[in-house]
Amino acid sequence: MPDGLPILDIAAVSKTFRSGAGEIHALSGASLTIEQGEFICLIGASGCGKSTLLRLIGGFETPTAGSVKMWDAPITGPRPDRGMVFQDYALFPWLTVRGNIAFGPKARGLHRKEVRAATDHFIELVGLARFADAYPHQLSGGMRQRVAIARVLANDAQLILMDEPFGALDAMTRERLQEELLELWQRTKLTVIFVTHAIEEAILLADRVVVMTPGPGRIQSDNHVALPRPRDVASPEFNAIRRELSQLLMSHHGTKATVALRPHLRAFA
Amino acid sequence: MSGGDARPRPATTRLPAVGRSTWPLIVPAAGLLLWWLATKDKPANLVPPPGEVGRALWDLAVGGLYDDAFSSTLLTHLLASVSRVYGGFLLAALIGVPLGLMIGRIAAVRAMFEPTLQILRPVPVTAWLPLAMILFGIGPRSAFFLVFLGAFYPILVNTIFGVRSVDPRLFEAASMLGASSSAIFPKVVLPAALPSIFTGLRLGLGFAWVVIVVGEMTGVPTGLGAIIMEARQLSRTEIVIAGMVVIGFAGFLSDQLVQWLGRRLLRWSPQHA
Questions:
Q1: Mean pLDDT to the nearest integer, A234-251
Q2: Does residue B130 form part of some domain?
Q3: Is residue B48 part of a domain?
Q4: Lowest mean pLDDT across A39-53, A250-264, B73-87, B100-114
Q5: Which residue of A has its CA nearest to B188?
């Protein structure tokens, strides 16, 4: 891919849903540029349009206005290079762990040997070798989400879209999966866009935390988190950022806070 | 990554291991006892005692007790009924499953067929009996038609339900993974609808056994329904009850067979595994 070109360019995107009674402005004039290899967290209260934005990038929705481009080409629909990890896993219940991970490579028409090799590699990578022949209903939530991650990795996704992927998991499993995801991301050149409503999760994971506000959904601020990894959630620096971000999320239309916050965050760099 | 947290199966109340096979026998044994107490030493009773039904069943199966028109005819009647039940059921499945898939998946087909089928569905099979005899004549073809009708609606309705209730997330997941729109039907819709289709087939086969007696009231010479009707006219109530027992067991065994097939084919489904 050409140097200097952002992997994703979101320009003045709006999305309006028509429902029986009227219109819902889910997203209004959102602009965002994402470089290859970045870890972005979209954060905000429910109704702020963060999931809508993710679904637009995934190609599951089309924008009412504006454009979403990947490598400068408009996104027209779902494609394997943009892999989505859903909160409710969306695994195929009739396929085993192996079958779910092989679904993409098979759909792309790879040779049986290549399918087998890719599948084995990613089953191993997410530590599910012992469960390769288990069906989704036999797995815990954490294991199901590992399968969902392996499924998009096996498809050579460059951009991983995650919609509150760890929201339904217990705290311990969530922490372990966060660690594993960071490890995976640091080893690859993947770009991750991760939707969450948990401030701590966003600061722990992201290079940039994009704060969104509802009514209509829009991007309020884009905050670089320059803390070195692994990040210590108990450190004063981490807590300072957490405090700033929660204040920002509380004061919905606080443009002043945005201006004040960005240099403040940079001070931790 | 590592994983060691397999989810345990949801537990149901466990029966004590000793006598697990005795539990199902308690209710029939009590029923038989009550039946025997109520009918013994009453020679003029319209309901025969269990022993007499047992002898009738034996004579029906292998003969040698009464040497009448019913003796050792059970196999003939059973085979006739089984062929009608499975024939009507298979025809119902051959039409019901594809039609259900199309109604569930294609809006135009749904708009065309669904209202008509919704109006025809509440009409009981027994109400079709006179018309069936006019259309298909007195004989096995009418019986076949009625069994078909009984099995058809459960298969159709459950197939439509299965197709309509596929989790839309799975369509998104499949297209995100690169499945073409023509691959969505065989790769997503069909497997996702399979448990419902299977439930429909199981209910349909059950209904086929239910309507077989009605179906064989159309004047066919053989079949379990036919001997029940014939024995009724001759006031041979013990043979009527023997026929009922055979239908019960045949239906039970055929349901067990279907369930066994389901457990093998739908191992992935938490409802069937």
A1: 90
A2: yes
A3: no
A4: A250-264
A5: A92
Residue B15 lies in a domain: no
Q: Is the pLDDT of residue A255 over 70?
A: no
Q: By the CB < 8 Å criterion, does B175 face chain A?
A: yes
Q: What domain count does chain B have?
A: 1
What predicted TM-score, i.e. pTM, was given to this entire model? 0.82
How far is the C-alpha of A191 from the C-alpha of A178, rounded, in Å?
A: 15
B246 in a domain, yes or no?
yes
CATH value at residue B84: 1.10.3720.10
pLDDT at B45 over 70: yes
Reported in sequence order, the residue ranges of chain A that DSSP labels E, i.e. its strands, are 8-18, 23-34, 39-43, 65-70, 73-74, 82-85, 159-163, 191-196, 208-213, 218-224
Q: How far is A165 from chain B (nearest CA, A)?
A: 14
Mean pLDDT for the stretch of residues A199-210: 95
Q: What are the residues facing A27 on neighbouring strands?
A: A15
Q: Which of A92, A100, A163 to mutate to test the interface with B (most CBs of B within 10 A)?
A: A92
Q: Is the pLDDT of residue B242 over 50?
A: yes
pLDDT band at A3 (very low <50, low <70, confident <90, very high): low
Instruction: Indicate yes or no: CB of B268 within 8 angstroms of CB of A95.
Output: yes
Residues of A in contact with B263 (CB under 8 A): none
**Smallest CA–CA separation between A119 and chain B, in Å?**
14
Cβ neighbours for B215, distance < 8 A, ≥ 6 positions apart: B84, B88, B125, B142, B143, B144, B145, B146, B147, B150, B225
The parent domain of residue B197 ranges over: 80-265
Chain A residues with CB inside 8 Å of B181's CB?
none
